[in-house]
Amino acid sequence: MNCTLHFLHRAVREANSHIDFHRHPMFEIVYYRSGTGTTAFEHNEYRYEPGIFTVLRANTDHNEIRHTDTEVVYFGFYCDQTPVELNTGMHRDFAFTIRGLIEQMDAEMNAKKSHYELKINALLQAVIIEVLRLQSPLAPSASGEERHIWNARHYMDQYFSEKVNLTQLSALSGYSYDHFRHLFKDEVGVTPMQYLRQLRIDKAITMMRGRDSSLTDVALECGFTSLSQFSATFRRITGKKPSAYRV
């Protein structure tokens, strides 16, 4: 697979602006560095936020509606052999690996040093590899459902401290929430919400045993909206008060 960059742009779009449905005759990756809003493609609408990026195969109709000022880097490219697994979809750049590669591409484009085009296309290949790894993190023998559930678990493991929208997470996996919940329980043994709650409680216990933070700080850092919610959930899962785990 040999891919060649066709364009790369960085832009800041104003809040409450939009771009209507359009398409490109090539692959496009749109990376959101800041801002919030929505983008729609393949009959689904998705929310974007910093660290989210979309992969769009050639001739995919898509739009963008910005709720806040949005900084975006977007680039189009052709491949001499279509990478079958590079599918249209939205993803989260968990470790910001892809962002780092895109920043290098942008820097090379601006500096235009000797052989910069070769360097940019080499970085593009690295971006595509990282995207493929995000889309297929398991063994080749793993089913599509296993891959989607793995991605969902990985997302919750990384972002348990934030507000996790399970309905949106199921949509990103390509399922309705009810079907996603069923698949998740079959694969993991508990529902997505039960998994997230247990994960947050486990993290809270670790924090309480290793730090002097107040219980309110622990609750908020572990994704609970209040101390009362944290305490009630903690007692329901462990049968004890949070203070019982203080060293």
From TrEMBL:
Keyword Repeat recorded = no
PROSITE patterns named in the record: HTH_ARAC_FAMILY_1, HTH_ARAC_FAMILY_2
The UniProt keywords, alphabetically, are: Activator, DNA-binding, Transcription, Transcription regulation
**Entry annotated with the keyword Transcription:** yes
Q: Which residues form the HTH araC/xylS-type domain?
A: 150-247
What InterPro entries does its record include? Answer: AraC-bd, AraC_XylS_family_regulators, Homeodomain-like_sf, HTH-like, HTH_AraC, HTH_AraC-typ_CS, RmlC-like_jellyroll, Tscrpt_reg_AraC-type_HTH
What CDD domains has UniProt attached to this entry?
cupin_RmlC-like (cd02208)
Which Gene Ontology molecular-function terms are recorded?
DNA-binding transcription factor activity; sequence-specific DNA binding
**Protein name stated in the entry:** AraC family transcriptional regulator
Q: Which organism is it from?
A: Paenibacillus thalictri
Taxonomic lineage is:
Bacteria, Bacillati, Bacillota, Bacilli, Bacillales
